[in-house]
UniProtKB/TrEMBL annotation:
Family annotation (Pfam families): CBM_35, CBM_6, fn3, Glyco_hydro_75
GO process terms (BP): polysaccharide catabolic process
GO molecular function terms listed in the Swiss-Prot or TrEMBL record: carbohydrate binding; chitosanase activity
Matches recorded under PANTHER family: ENDO-CHITOSANASE
Full protein name: Carbohydrate-binding protein
Lineage: Bacteria, Bacillati, Actinomycetota, Actinomycetes, Streptosporangiales
Top-rank taxon: Bacteria
Domain Fibronectin type-III: 291-379
PROSITE patterns assigned to the protein according to its UniProt record, in alphabetical order: CBM6, FN3
Length: 577
């Protein structure tokens, strides 16, 4: 065989390496930690995030300024959470790095200082630190500001297939579905086997190495990761994924030198390493030019006197959908990581028409969905939050003792109470991310992630916490056994928080001594931070679990069924109590 020409060699190398688009990341910046001029931090209105919110002086000129860090230059989505308890809009200039990006931006009335809404805009950020300043332009000052969430793109990543690497005590296989490239690598069942890649990065420093793997056994398969012959991460665990055809990602931070580096993954136990599909390494890459498909099936799922709730069928993308935007005309009125959102702060009786678009990690935006129109009133959305809460102001305790809100709380304070047709309690909300692995819910995003839920999905497998709103009941104990009230998988629940009602189902069980938990999607739909690491809320959150016959949906993961049945049961509950 003759030598390869330089051109042929370059073509061969390029065929083994692919560039993946940047991944979107959302970071929350609390207003109380920002630079505030002519404003004070307060905590006298509930519903805020963090330790408080910022109340500016009633004048033109006060400002709040955050420092927002972007891993790479590009377009970012900026979401400002605010409250305006007056009857008139408050206006402000929004500037990024000293350049005005939204002049006289209107922050309309939200109905009360304890009712929070989100104003979303897009802006171009540079790599590194950026300043985002909101300066009041009217005599009323800024609205109360809770936080700024910035969704930015990480530096693009480069992909290296395992089957193209140097192998020792490992071989290329294709007998399990779901791999990328032309195959995956199967280690022999012995310690010492390895895969070694040649990784080229433009800049020295810490890079994120993501290993895509499968482990069809119940036992974790650890590996040592070495860079340029030196162990960079010892005993990295790769837990079971449920099946050899089920793939997961494991991220590890490693320090790389500029130029070519060797990255070696070595199995350390008698079982060898997991099956490995590829690695991706943060660094220079090319663009993703393909936008997601347009959302379909946009519909109104609920209304209140000041809000309209929407849902739609999730979009698809060549890499992955990272979120959605809800538009009224050309203005973004809501963003969501899931195919549902609630637009709040509306005037009772007002009619609004919305369209929805999907976004991917590279910032590509889909075409708009078909328009959907709703009216902010209580005529078709079931009882209001206020009507439901008025029925649970007293407690006929049925639990034998009280539950704790969190494991580190010394004593229980939350009783389970009974009413005609329901049981209820009021506490906090922790985030349940168990079930199907997703970008939002996995071992890396949630320290306590479990790849199953107590309740199975309708088609087999487990529920998807990132997509399906569901709540969690404590496991049966001497304190209380939910089964004595006929509650089980698919029982409909009304969750009430911050003036909103979200209809969900019972989908999982939790620790026997703790109460107050719901899925990532349920939290997101209620405007609660759904991040399992730092999300949730101290409340108050009220859970009304309907009891009796006819309180379970036919298909547990059909959220529309939960909404329809929930409205009927909630109306009966209000009438009977």
């Amino acid at each position: 065989m003759g030598r390869l020409s330089v051109l042929s060699l370059c073509v061969l190398l390029l065929s083994l390496v692919a560039v993946l688009p940047a991944q979107a990341a959302t970071t929350r910046y609390e207003a109380e930690n920002a630079t505030n001029v002519q404003g004070v931090v307060e905590a006298n209105h509930p519903g805020f995030s963090g330790t408080g919110f910022v109340n500016s002086d009633n004048a033109a000129g006060p400002y709040t300024e955050w420092i927002v860090r972007a891993p790479a230059a590009g377009t970012a989505t900026l979401a400002l959470r605010f409250a305006n308890g007056t009857a008139t809009a408050r206006t402000a200039d929004v500037a990024v790095n000293g350049t005005l990006v939204s002049a006289g931006r209107s922050f309309g009335p939200t109905g009360a200082w304890s009712t929070w809404a989100t104003s979303t805009l897009t802006a171009t950020l540079r790599a590194g630190d950026n300043t985002v300043r909101v300066t009041s332009t009217g005599a009323g000052g800024n609205p109360n500001l809770d936080f700024l969430e910035a969704t930015t793109a990480d530096a693009p990543a480069t992909e290296y297939q395992a089957e193209s690497a140097v192998l020792s005590q490992a071989s290329v296989a294709t007998n399990h579905a779901g791999y990328t490239g032309s195959g995956f690598v199967d280690y022999v069942n012995a310690p010492g086997g390895y895969i070694e890649w040649s990784v080229n990065v433009a800049e020295a420093g810490v890079h994120t190495l993501t290993v895509r793997y499968a482990n069809g056994t119940a036992a974790a398969r650890p590996m040592d990761l070495a860079v340029n012959g030196v162990t960079a991460a010892a005993g990295v665990t790769f837990p079971g994924t449920g099946a050899w055809s089920t793939w997961a990602d494991k991220q590890v931070a490693v320090t790389l030198a500029a130029g070519v580096n060797t990255v070696r993954a070595t199995g350390t136990t008698a079982n060898g390493g997991p099956n490995v599909d590829r690695i991706t390494v943060s660094g220079a890459g090319g663009p993703d030019g393909q936008a997601p498909t347009a959302p379909t099936g946009a519909r109104v799922t609920g209304t209140s006197a000041t809000s309209i709730s929407l849902a739609w069928t999730e979009s698809s993308d060549n890499v992955g959908v990272t979120g959605y935007r809800v538009y009224e005309g050309t203005a973004v009125v809501a963003t969501s990581p899931t195919p549902a959102a609630t637009v709040g702060g509306l005037v009772t009786g007002s009619t609004h028409t919305y369209t929805v678009t999907a976004l991917d990690a590279a910032g590509n935006e889909s075409a708009a969905s078909a328009p959907v129109t709703g009216r902010a009133d209580t005529g078709t959305g079931g009882p209001t939050a206020e009507q439901l809460l008025s029925k649970v102001t007293t407690c006929q305790q049925i639990s034998n003792g009280r539950y704790k809100t969190d494991a580190d709380v010394a004593t229980g304070t939350i009783p389970v109470c009974a009413k005609t047709g329901a049981v209820h309690w009021t506490g906090d909300m922790d985030i349940d991310c168990d079930g199907v692995r997703t970008a939002q819910c996995n071992e890396d995003t949630d320290c306590c992630f479990q790849p199953q839920t107590f309740c199975p999905a309708s088609g087999g497998g487990y529920l998807n916490a990132a997509r399906l709103p569901f709540m969690v009941v404590p496991s049966p104990s001497g304190t209380w056994d939910y089964r004595t009230r006929g509650i089980g998988c698919g029982t409909v629940v009304a969750i009430v928080h911050n003036g909103q009602v979200e209809y969900t189902v019972m989908g999982d069980t939790g620790p026997a001594a703790i109460i107050g938990e719901a899925s990532y999607a349920a939290a997101a739909n209620l405007g609660i931070n759904p991040d399992p690491k730092n999300g949730g809320t101290d409340g108050p959150v009220t859970y009304i679990v309907f009891t009796g016959t006819g309180t379970k949906v036919q298909t547990i993961d059909n959220h529309d069924q939960a909404i329809t049945l929930g409205r009927q049961l909630a109306q009966q509950f209000v009438q009977n109590n």
